[in-house]
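Write out the 3D structure for:
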Amino acid sequence: MKKILLFLFIPLLSFGQVIEETSLKKNSEFPIGSSIRFVQFMQDEKIQNLQKHHFDSYTAGNDMKMYQIVPSEGNYQWSRVDSIVNYTKSNNQRLFGHTLIWHSATPKWVEKKAKKNPKWLEEFMNEYIHKYVSRYKGKVDGWDVVNEGLNTKGSGFRQESIWYKTMGKKYIEKAFKYAHKADPKAILFYNDFNIERDTLKFNSMMKMIEDFLERDVPISGIGFQMHIRMDIPNEIIEYTLKRAASTGLQIHLSEVDIIFNSHDDNKGGGIQTYNNITTEMLNQQAIKYEELVNIYKKTVPKSQQYGITFWGFNDRDTWINRFFKIKDWPCIYDEKLNPKPAFYGFLNGLKN
């Protein structure tokens, strides 16, 4: 009971004291970030103020994906990313690039041309990564070079991807080599979901990464998306993070949220078990957020802590409800942009 009450207790301090006391970034030894949809973000002053107050790392939700950058052949669109660079620079925030190669963000025109001329796809990959990463060299700190290259469940590569179909599994290491050549100082990540709990998938990833390290493929980090449910055992998360950290690579919890309901990992595949949120559920979520921070701090050496990034930080704008067609409450702020017990649980984890 004492632990639960701690999340609900806010000390009576002056405004300045409250600002410092409850700022996530000011209470963290590693960067704290959130994904942002830039157009909507720039139209919402309250969200901007919260983002500036709590976060020192910025990940674009969709704005830096391939279908936004090159919507048609030869038509590179840089203006929005330029605006994001200006925003992060003016607010002293780290900019993280998400993502260079992802099957779901590949424009239809690329898939169509690759099917007609398979050799062209690697030439395009090289050109695209070179133009993109070189343009923002020194401005983007790190990149998700390849996102979700493994099967949704179990072992093996995602074979339905146009990149795998056309280039085979070598497309992943080639993407890393092209990105490193374009910006040798950028921190380069492989990013995926369910790797914190799907043992077969995690082992496939580790086999690939250990092979890369043996052959000097320039990979710098592992991104755990960490879209987790309340019932995922902490012991499993701790085991996978510890083993991943044993590689010596940077570890990024890159898309964090914690849901109550479940889903089958497919669009529209939500399973609505809970229709309403209770005080008990909110407090249990707070404990889970605190435990996640504690596991990260315990298992990942400080020199490898790239940071923790939320995939949206409020229940009003969460992708979970849109994508899975359910009603859930996965974030640290509620629909009215008020901090939830989850916020204070996460904050306690940072402070302890």
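The chain has 15 helices and eleven strands.
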